[in-house]
Specification:
This protein is of the alpha/beta class. It has nine helices and six strands. Helix 2 crosses helix 9 and helix 4 runs parallel beside helix 5. The two termini are 14 Å apart.
Length: 190
């Protein structure tokens, strides 16, 4: 596991000083966005467990909804969890870009981090068996060819913008076959 080579800091802190923040309190410390078929029972399970041991309240979708793209739209429960979280971990994998559900989550995370109701948001991308370069230059190319035929231009364009945004934030590239708790604890420390 190594930091990505992006020139930007690994933590993206975005504030909106022009809006008056409503009195909102974060329900979750961290929202974890991931493609379930890739990492639900492996990396994300370890990450979520380690967060819990550190008394960090993490939210992950355990209902397997993203695996089948039920209804193709993210439900309100997930959107509220994103809005109510103060930090975001986005686990980008080979199949993340094939899921309209995951991409809609990413767009909402991007919007919430930009309009964060006066709170500081931290976004932490983890590139799991992909690199930022893979994500920005083609590992999702076939997926997006299909998306362009199936979804509106505006929706696909929003997904592409969100992917460009997340790739621009320094994070961690996990390339080894085994993920050790020590590495996950280090990620949580950051």
């Amino acid at each position: 596991m190594r930091p990505s080579t992006s020139k930007r800091r690994f933590r993206a802190t975005i504030t909106n000083p022009t809006s008056s923040p409503p009195s909102r309190r974060s329900t979750h410390d961290v929202f974890i966005s991931f493609r379930g078929v890739d990492v639900r029972n492996t990396f994300v399970d370890h990450l979520h467990s380690t967060l819990g041991r550190k008394r960090v309240i993490g939210f992950r979708d355990d209902d397997n909804m993203d695996d089948s793209n039920v209804g193709e739209n993210v439900d309100q429960r997930i959107l509220r969890a994103i809005e109510d979280s103060s930090s975001y971990v986005v686990v980008l994998t080979r199949n993340y870009g094939s899921s309209a559900w995951c991409l809609d989550e990413l767009v909402h995370i991007m919007r919430c981090s930009r309009h964060n109701w006066g709170r500081r948001s931290r976004i932490f991308p983890i590139f799991y068996h992909v690199t930022p370069e893979d994500v920005s230059s083609g590992c999702y190319e076939d997926d997006f060819d299909q998306h362009k035929r199936r979804y509106t231009y505006e929706r696909v364009d929003g997904w592409l913008r969100a992917l460009a945004w997340i790739v621009g934030i320094s994070g961690w590239v996990v390339t080894s076959g085994q993920v050790r708790n020590k590495r996950i604890r280090f990620i949580i420390f950051l």
